[in-house]
Fold Polyprenyl synthetase family protein.
Amino acid sequence: MSAPLLPELVEGALRQFFVSRAPVVDSVGGGYRDAVTALESFVLRGGKRVRPSFAWTGWVGAGGDPKGTDAGAVLRACSALELVQAGALIHDDIIDASTTRRGFETVHIDFARRHRGAGWHGRPEQFGEAVAILLGDLALVWADDMLRDSGLDAESLARVGPVWSAMRTEVLGGQYLDIAGEVSADESVEAATRVNRYKTAAYTIERPLHLGAVIAGADDALIDAYRRFGTDIGLAFQLRDDLLGVFGDPHVTGKPSGDDLRSGKRTVLFALALETADVNDPVAAEVLREAIGTDLTDEQVERLRMLLIELGAVEQVEQRIATLTERAFEALDGSTATEVGKAHLRASALAATLRTA
Amino acid sequence: MSAPLLPELVEGALRQFFVSRAPVVDSVGGGYRDAVTALESFVLRGGKRVRPSFAWTGWVGAGGDPKGTDAGAVLRACSALELVQAGALIHDDIIDASTTRRGFETVHIDFARRHRGAGWHGRPEQFGEAVAILLGDLALVWADDMLRDSGLDAESLARVGPVWSAMRTEVLGGQYLDIAGEVSADESVEAATRVNRYKTAAYTIERPLHLGAVIAGADDALIDAYRRFGTDIGLAFQLRDDLLGVFGDPHVTGKPSGDDLRSGKRTVLFALALETADVNDPVAAEVLREAIGTDLTDEQVERLRMLLIELGAVEQVEQRIATLTERAFEALDGSTATEVGKAHLRASALAATLRTA
């Protein structure tokens, strides 16, 4: 029998955390349990547990011992990142008016349907959104509880505090800039990169690694190397995502082909194409501006794809991914991370930047 | 020159906290600062600072020394409750589709107006709600940061953790039960009391007192007395609110007369009236059920007021307030709280339960 993989261990820790909340939930009573159960299903249903994995690997790479006595506490602290993520996703789905997530109804759609089914008063959509706002809040505050109750000693918790705090302030900033950039149609590469930096790179890789490092008591040099590695791989990861959002195989990505073009997402890919078109090909620039965020036919999507290639934007993005990855590996190689940590981080980095889904 | 009052000290602590967040907000850059400034204005603009006051008084009553070296840290920890409250209000205003708060536009209305003014893409309402969701989240996570960075020693923080955690899980539960009760038209006194217990009493008085007590290292007996006092005064406070929501003078309360009847709020007052009417006066019960939550004329509001009095519900609520207050004072009097703590708590309790606005 093989040892359980990290995602399974994270799920076990999350499951245990939900059990630990039962007394307070039951003391409130009424139908609170039903709402909490919906949150629990959302959290346990999946995802790749990317953030806990990077945090854990950061800890191991900084000398943490997976067989040591504090490994359980560290696992719980790392797993708390999944509750931050649950809160972010539930609220994001309201903001983006998304109807499905991981093949299931989003929380606000789920509760609107329950309202409709029960024939309750008021608008089902309003009820669904209200419950999703509250459950997202609950996930956010429970993330803190899970970290605080993880069993980490007071000194480790004190070191984690500022990292945890910065991460959450940054991701909310990244989300804000994302929606502000979308409504104001900010076309700059700089604005798109800023969103990638804070909404994705810092939140998904840099800060989780940083978190793992401070738990292990890493020195400033290793923390700095981790952060440079995490930022660059995080940015490369998002650039890969941008390419997949336009060129990805729907059978592999699970998203409709050209989804990002139809939704009007302000990606670096698109910004680079516009930048070149504005200089060299004003007609192409006009086509791009008129097409983005509209209900495109498959033929129009295909036409835009060719345009992004012809303008050199795809090549530029691939080049950026390569440069970022190279620079990240240099930072990692030159660091004092353990060999096993380096090996894991390299593998995770390649998985994140070379993926097809 | 007199010493600053507690609300002013709380505002000073909050102002200082916002200054401390500037580096991370500016590192994210873009327009994040604008959004954060809107949150800061919301937080600093007011309210009575009820929760920090109860927490502070709980600490003083448990032997905390307002002139001691840890008073600054305690003040900051107590003030963090205002950020929890800001998050709750901003999200509540979305849920209730409220347009004003403390005489100003609610956050979602404010940002919808900015969107409209700038002629941005998409629906202004959707943008306003999205920003308000994110700023409510930011207030919630900053509440944690402010507590963690308050300067309380690790042992005090460890004692505060479970109280802080329970308080937030309870208030979100109370909010959930409130909206679930409203859509399902739950008519029971029990359901309305449960909402009052968790949405108001625990969150506004019981847990803040508890928080202050554990910071001071109070023993179980004093904590128990505080909690009983806080629960009862909290319930009485909400019952007074129910009466003011129907009978309050609009010039004093600042809310339209009969507001709770028009909005369909499921109060204990209304539930008691229905309970009696169902037994003794089926016609009155029908009138109540048909009227609640509809766009009533002033004459209809006046008719319902008379009905609530005739059915004895007003008398019952006044009786409950008196009983709760009496029981709360007994718990307080029999406790080991300091005399100055008792005096302050008695005054606060009377202000909360005998008020006219």
The mean pLDDT of chain A is 95. Chain A touches chain B through 64 residues (CB under 8 Å).
